[in-house]
Amino acid sequence: MKKLSLVASVLFLSNLYAQPSQTYCQNFNGSQVFLSASAATLNLDNSFTMEAWIYLTESSPYAIIAGKVNHPRGNDPFQNYVLALDPTGLKPEFVQTTGISGSYIRATSPTNIAVNTWTHVSATLGASTMKLYVNGALVATQTSPGNPNSNTGVPFSIGMGATPSFQTTCCGLKGNIKQVRVWDVARTVTEINATKDVNLIGNEPNLLACYPMNESSGQTLMDSSSNNNNLLRGITSGTEAQDPTPFLESNLSPLFSYTTITLPTITSSYEDLYVIDFNNDTKLDFLVSSLKWPPEDTATEVPLQAFQNNSLLNFTAASPFVGLSSMVHPRDYTVGDFNSDGKSDIFIADHGKDVTPFPGQVNKLFLQNSSGQLVNSPDNISSVPDFSHHTASADIDNDGDLDIYVCNIYNETQVGPYFLVNNGAGNFTKVTTNFPAAIANLNSVYMASRFADIDNDNDKDLILGAFDGSGIAKDLILLNNGLGVFTAGLPLPNRYGSATWGTVGLVAKDFNNDGWVDLLMSTLYQYQTCQLQLLLNNQNGTFTDATANITQNWGTGNNKWIKWIETGDFNNDGFIDIVCSLHFGSAPKLYFNRGNAVFEDASGRITLPSVTGIVSTRVADYDTDGTAEIAFLCANNKIVIAKKIQNYVLNTNDFTSNQIEDIMVYPNPFTANFSIKIPENENFKSFTIFDTLGKKIHATSTFQETFSIDHLSNGMYIINIETDKNKYTKKIIKN
């Protein structure tokens, strides 16, 4: 077989410089601050040094690292004296004024600092000279405008500006800070380098304040010098949104290693990754689709490529196809054992040329034979060309075999969506009478589809995302009556944006661990702007829009849309996380679920090596170790697989109180059986097991002293236990 170029397990280290050793740093989200209780604290004169270690997670324009801003903040001279970031948010600078209009002077680094990397920055004022140092090296010098304002009237702050009334003001840093120090002397470069990498005792000469920022909790940031210039976490003594968050430093070390697979150069464009065990060896392989873009006058069929998984993330080119494998514009796929022979098969929706008059294309069904080959089986499905934008499979009629929904939107011959109902042997009958006629005849057009048990009645319902420009304000749930007949459920909340927006993709997962499936929709407007819309299941047929739980800004322009949303527990904390990318985006977005479906942007934890244009993202366990990897297909002929190499360590505030009550799961790890002990004053309600991809694999409402799940493969699982008073999440490991 032809070997692919493989670069294995490239580890990108984030900490290039030595730093003082500590357990915690403090995390800032762009609107959080530490500030002094008095404006008189740390009023500096004509000779001083300010320094800090910072770890940016993203660009933070005009962000204050430490110092005193001007009040009003928007009025000249804008600052008093601050260690800050410039308008790009990536260049450190030292700004000093006399407090008088026109006195604004800044010494700015000529180069950007790296994100997701600890960087030491320091500023000195002495002998009428301003100096800025980055990692102990002088990078900028300016002549001081004069002595600083000795009566600023504003508190000293870290992470953001502050006003005389102890409120926040522009601008906030996004990332982490530690080891902020203030001296009443302009330190030399030798002195700066002698102490920047070590913890201070606190009695060093000329030390005005030292904030290691190693606190794990509490509302006070302690000054370890003898001057007791302690700072307040947030703007009051109580907890609030402006409070920076203690953050374990160990969680800033690399989370992923990366394996790069270089694909053959082709004349068409790589478009999508399909994941299937096509040779029945229990390892997941890749099919890679491509297309001719822009489309030619005559539809150009391009063959699928196959890459066999040889274990340990090593893939080689393969030829598993029997019959024609070429396609024009394959848009979606679904994998399952369609002919009940114990092997994985694949149905691929091909919508054909994506230009007027949209002639459509015949979809393809590949059934795996006993030799580990994918046999093109056109006689088993409808052979009518249609514009199939999405597809999904489930046993809709509870007869023990998988059926297929073909989500058509339009084409030259106006072929609407339909079901392919399975006879059990992989032969399908086209059915259009078991769901609303308005959808089947394209009066109401939907372009995204997935199955999930929305109402927990043990049958698969159908979720549909509306076509953009259709004027449909809400996406749709079609409830299954258990026999494969679908009727509209209760209305969903309005789609993000407006009725002119559409939903191009979706996933159905239990994001808040309550045992009920929630929805995450990829919405867009004319493929020029987009938003993830989170809908949480209210357990009564309705959903609550919780989009505000995901901080996001995707911008506007060409290809500003998210084709695929993938999920998995990427930090092993028991909650389902999100990974996705703009189509042809340069970097993926990673969101950690912090519990109760509230998401933190952790995109800085995933840094792909040398990629151009992400076109497909797929999450699966590619190396059969029981944990999920993330595969990215990139436009520069590469597949990059991100493998988690570090368990994310949980802060104490990562748990809500009801997750650390007296509940026992033992033994853990286990071999075949384990037991659960719940508090005596609580009554058992339900027990659910999920794999690390978030797939529900077992559920029961019957309490047992011992649970037997010896049929599960070895690996890690997440269990949810609900009682009449609490909900618990635990990790278990089967050996």
Strand content: 35-45%
Helix/strand/pairing category: mainly beta
| Major sheet summary line | 8 strands, antiparallel
Shape estimate? elongated
N/C terminus separation: 35 Å
Would you identify the regions where 5 or more consecutive residues have pLDDT less than 50? 1-16, 648-661
Question: What oligomeric state is this?
Answer: single chain
What is the structure about, briefly put?
This protein is mostly beta strands and 735 residues long. The protein is built from 2 helices and 57 strands.
Describe this structure in words.
The radius of gyration is 29 Å and the shape is elongated. With 735 residues, the protein is mainly beta. Strands 2, 4, 9, 10, 11, 15, 16 and 19 form an 8-stranded antiparallel β-sheet that branches. The protein has 2 helices and 57 strands.
What structural keywords apply?
disordered N terminus, 2 helices, elongated, mainly beta, 735 residues, 57 strands, 8-stranded antiparallel β-sheet
